[in-house]
Design brief:
With about 600 residues, this protein is mainly alpha-helical. It is about 60% helix and about 0% strand. A two-stranded antiparallel ribbon has the order 1-2. It has a two-stranded antiparallel ribbon with strand order 3-4. Belongs to the major facilitator superfamily. Proton-dependent oligopeptide transporter (POT/PTR) (TC 2.A.17) family.
Length: about 600
Amino acid sequence: MMTLPKCFNICSSTTSLDLQVEGSVTTTLVSNGCVDFRGKIADKQTTGGWKAAPFIIVNEVAERLAFFAIAVNMVRYLVYEMRQSLPTAATHVTNWIGASYVLTLFGAFIADAYLGRFKTIITFSCIYAVGMVLLTVSASVDSLRPQPCTVEPCSQATSGQTAFLYGALTLIALGTGGIKPCVSSFGANQFDEADSKEMVKKYSFFNWFFFAINMGVLLGITVLVYIQDNKGWTWGFVIPTAFTMCSIIILATGVPYYRYQKPMGSPFTRFIQVVVASVRNHLSGVEVVRDAQLYEVKTDESDILGARKLAHTAQFKFLDKAAVMTDPDGNPKSRWTLCTVTQVEEFKCFIRVLPVWASTLALAISFAQLSTLFVSQAIKTDRKLGHHFEIPPGSVPVFAAINALILIPLYEKFIVPIIRKRTGHPRGLTSLQRMGVGLFISIFAVASAALVEKKRRDEFSPLRKMNVFWLVPQFFLIGTAEVFTYVGQLEFFYDEATDGTRSISSAIFLSEIGIGSWLSTVLVKIIGRATGGEQEGWLRNDLNKSKLNYFYWILTAINGANFLVYLWVARRYKGRDGTGTSVTDGDEK
């Protein structure tokens, strides 16, 4: 693993870094306290912006290519090579994907508290690469998987073979958990929020970052699936392993151009301190009479090293008790008894975004079907293109990825300027509005899947299969919903986070994808058992005998109810400055 200079852990404690020179103000230095690789305050002319962002975006393409190549192929690998049943394999893969995203909370904690974002990305990328190597070994060495089946019954995988494979997948999940919450935040750190020009470029970065994700997905589920089908499992895993290693090299190449921010300590510890101090003071009968009672350090910087001060807001007044000075003449030392206003407001910011996070979970449940039930539908369709080529089932989600690759440039170059003229908002739509559009579209995505599945069962048969292009509308709509919601979430959770909680905030958003995968598994099991199990229920082993369209209608109802809940939450949301930032607002807070 590469050793990073100690200067990466150095960050100025000065928030305003503009230099007074002969009465004028030079603004080539960043205002957020970030440093360059030498440990000096970062200069906008030589670091950050689009000088640094391409390395991060290309790294994301390579990482996503590897992850989705595994995710798409793993169900078939478990079924055909490890001899697991299809429902068992699908459940294991769904749970693995869920764990990969939930582990982002751990990765974000390490980044914010100890390593910083860049070091965390490099460290966990190496863990990811080790997992990829072990996965390739598992697919290449005959003794690590069951022998080819020539006579029924076929031999099952041994406990040792299964443990080796799952060990590799565990390392990949852990690596994913460390990389994902830091990459988007590290990329956004390359743009100075106090510079209006760089601020606009930051939002463009979020769009192109999501474009990179879908480019990686596109290559992973087309080229690599095709290679696996035609060259075997070894090649199917060797190539994404090589891309993983290349992604580390690409990211390291940008070292001279990045802006680095030092870790600021554990935000969870600070959160617990606020709760303990507020409860302690409440039990002591402390009341907040006026804001002047609230404690704040007298320095220009906050008490959180490297973080800017936050203004007091009126929400969650109970938590203000943690900052009440009961002894004005005292010299407060312990944050378990007295917290600063900034520390309290940091916790408030975290609490504020949780209802928005919870009210977008339904889309994550629906999106989980993209690589499971949507692909199961594709298996039952006619996927031939001409006489000599058949689209692999795992490549059918390419329709969603292509839609995203087309829609993002169109949205950025044409739709945003048009909407901006009507709303006056620099991004056309606020992040909450954009998320709302995505959630609304998701209702029609799942409804179209229900209609198409009913048509497939009623009007087609195994001898006369439905053409795979009938599935394009549901893939197109779910891809569109993801474009609006995902980018909106990237913007929202980054903007509403404080200096010391950016990685944690990104992880909260990403964990939604993992929890959505787990909830999807739970929902499938509940509906399956409630309707008669695998033999008589809606979701049977044989899709032609199932009633998958009924399941899709339940998802449609869930998405519809979720959209109404989201509207209620978003209309009442108040941003960090205490003003509204709802789906109906046209201006930034």
